[in-house]
Amino acid sequence: MKLSSVYSLLFLTASFCTFSQGTKDPSFEEVISLKGLSNPQISPDGRHILFHGHSTDWENNRFDTEIWMSRDGGEPFQLTNNPGKSSAGMLWSPDGKWIAFLSDRGDKQQIQVTRSEGGEPFQLTNADGSISSFRWSPDGKQIAFRQSEDKKDENDARKDKYGEFAIEDEEYSLNQLWIVDFIPENLGRDWLPQEKEDSVLKESVKPRLLMDSVPFSINGFEWSPDGKMIAFEHQPDPILISFMKRDISVYDIEKEEYRLLVDNASSDGLLDWSPDSKSILYVTDLDDTTSNFYKNAKIFRIDINGKNNKQLAADFDENIGGVEWNENGIFGLAWQKTRRQLLSIDPKNGEYAIVATSPDKIWSYSFSDDGSKMALTGAMYDGLTELYSVSYPVSGLTRITSSSDQISDWKVAKSEIISWPSEDGATIDGVLHKPADYDPSKKYPLLIVIHGGPTGISTPQPVPAYVYPQVQWLNKGALILRPNYRGSAGFGEAFRSLNVENLGVGDAWDVLSGVKYLEDQGIIDGDKVGAMGWSQGGYISAFLTTNSDKFKAISVGAGISNWMTYYVNTDIHPFTRQYLKATPWSDKEIYEKTSPMTNINNAKTPTLIQHGEFDRRVPTPNAYELWQGLQDVGAETKLIIYKGFGHGISKPKERLAAIWHNWQWFGKYIWDEEIEIPE
Length: 679
What we know:
By secondary structure, this protein is α+β, with helices and mostly antiparallel strands.
């Protein structure tokens, strides 16, 4: 069994999603504090379900994850408790008697094990570094795990002699594959190995390195069902953009050697083994190294002798991910517009079928050993994510959790799916959120929240959030539009390709035409329109602030301001080359056409800029360039740098600050209010 998660399916007709509305306007802190769940893992016999439970720790300013369990469909209870550290990544042993998971209970993330019947966890490994992932062997006698090679002595020696420096793209540690024996007799019932002498732990569970001095870094890996082999995906180094050079090999446990199996010119990713251990399933871009970011990846099966290489679901027009192969067939999830549904693929003829359509958005799933039981997490359009159990073939969907009870007395968003024609005739879908007390005779201020990606997606939901106080704006008396602009996931490869060589320009068409559509419907006040977004949504917001005077206020979150600035600073250069089909040196004009800074002299809109201090994806020079340009042309602007963060605001206190900053900014320019942020 293993976790599977991927993409889904929607209808073009407009539909409303409502449930019993409460009367409470939730605070920002209450929204941030909503508890969530993910990653269901059903026991081999299909009786019990593990899952991740997510909560907010305000005191330690962190979001925590612990492991929860539902026994025989009963009320879930918390299985682990590691305050300030978290426990996650759990897997059942093949016999269902043990649960292994990752936790940094000491100074490094190690494998812990606990009896499924209950009891304290035991630390199984004492590896030199932190362990990032692991898999049980099919007989349950071993665990393979991945960790980075230890370069501490080497790095310390260099530092002692030459001080500290870093050579770009050369400072990394390869990820290696290890195996450790699992011997239950070495784990006493009532003692924790870490309480014993360190030497005792190391002797009893000493791991061994499978492949030494190999010229690659290991990503994912899977045991063959017969336990004789491990298939693994690898790339020359762990640097992010090296994913385009991923290949797949198979390690023979008895022979202690590996051989290359799949080596297309572009990215090859391991998915799963066939139940009979004779084939593997993989996802690939074949030889395409110019459109990895927006074209559909392809799923293939291949025998381990290198023969019978066959594409599956070739006519399915979306990406399929989180794929699993069991006796019932091949399964995965895929976006189809704003629904995310479970599909099956026949491993022989490659044909696909949708096999689960509820809940509206299925996030992840897990099968029992015999394939007759499933656990899945998903959300209805008007609810929060819940845990479900279901029989297969799909029937008898049973909800186990009650997460949506957290918002039962809240005034939340009413969601409607709408569509409109863009400037070039492309049909654009979006999610229109309305207040609980919506009055069709009124004209409302409009706030546009633009998702990232560009291959992200916005879907109906009762509490849209992140750093934007959307529920509170709705309850204040606004409409919110979340457009699925060209390039969004769920609408097919051709739609995702519409902003190639047209970034910003086409995106702006999609947003502005959405505003016009709502204005023509007579439901918004066209003089009170604001826009915002993070990452790619921040870029589109920046483009709008320098290319349109339609907006009263804009907020740019971690957004690109100049594609040349972005290109020379980011950690993912191929993204720009693939979408713009050029480097700044080969086609300066396309970089100028699509960059917000090109038309900075036209900027008038008051613009808030929010950015993480250590953002590698969209580095801070983008924020400073836009901020300085806006100042130079006399546009009102404010730049806020969130200290210690990368591309996202991942701690609750700083997320609260970012929400307040947006509340204050749009309050001033949309509602003409001077709002003081509480001390």
